[in-house]
Fold:
Amino acid sequence: MRENTAGQELNEAYRHPDRAMDEALDWLVRLEAGGFVDRGARAEFDVWLDAEPSHRAAFEEIKTLWASPETLVAAQELDIHLRGLPVPLDAARKMPRHRIGSQAWAAAACLAVVIGATYLALQSMPRMLADYTTDAGERREITLPDGSRMILNTDSAVYLDFAGSKRGVRLIEGEVWFDVVHDATRQFHVAGHYSDVQVKGTAFVVKVQGDADTVLLQRGAVDAVHEQKSISLVHLVPGEMVVASSDAMSPVEKFDDERDLGWLQGRVVIDAKPLGDALAEVGRYFDGRVMVLNRSLLDVTVSGDYRTDRAQAAIAGLAAAAGGKTTVLPGGYIIIR
Structure:
């Protein structure tokens, strides 16, 4: 019953809303990352540069960003978030000239993280086996074979185990809300990386992020069981949460319904967080990459209530609140400086 959502093709065209910036990026990569540039191409560039004042201004701006040492540092961080393979530079060189502008910046930015490409490709393999997935910014509701419901948050993947009398879901990555139909004879299981949530009928959320599983109970009762049997089972009542790491269960805590479950209504609430943490949260809903050149901004405290379907605007708002400025580049890149 596999049903994967199709991701955006690698070669799909992208254009910056600022035509001058889009053309400047095209020229930058052709001149700086495209190998030998003949006289004809150089003359064509000079004509373009002198055609309008906006051309020279755009080229100078992007050339400054390209040359910044912080750009390399920020680009190296992309290997944590990259979801697909980078475009090899030699492949970019073979593209027709009219196509290279839409992919060139992505190819150039990925040069800094090409070493991590194999590792990232291996990481993506479990997702390929999923029964249901969501892309960045997508929210999706599924009715399970027993009538239970689940809502997948952004960038999530699950596969199902309903063979025979089983009722089970494994969360590969992301965050999922469950509303489980009561069945006294069959427990419903949700497995994360380190935990197994066992219920007979209730509403709860399981989130797999980084090196931890988070379980939040909205209604009913659940037992959270660690994969290490020596660690005690945790019983939750409504409004409580627990986090399972590789070797422990956290103390039970209360959670904030608006902050932690706001995504069910398409909201993401940032409550007095450092910009770095806020970008990590909002960035889950953005189908692109965020590069912070001004690292001092990362510790500035920000707050806000944003729509998950307007993640780019949310990132710009957070950056502005921290005193930064944003530039949007082809290939889904946002640079904060």
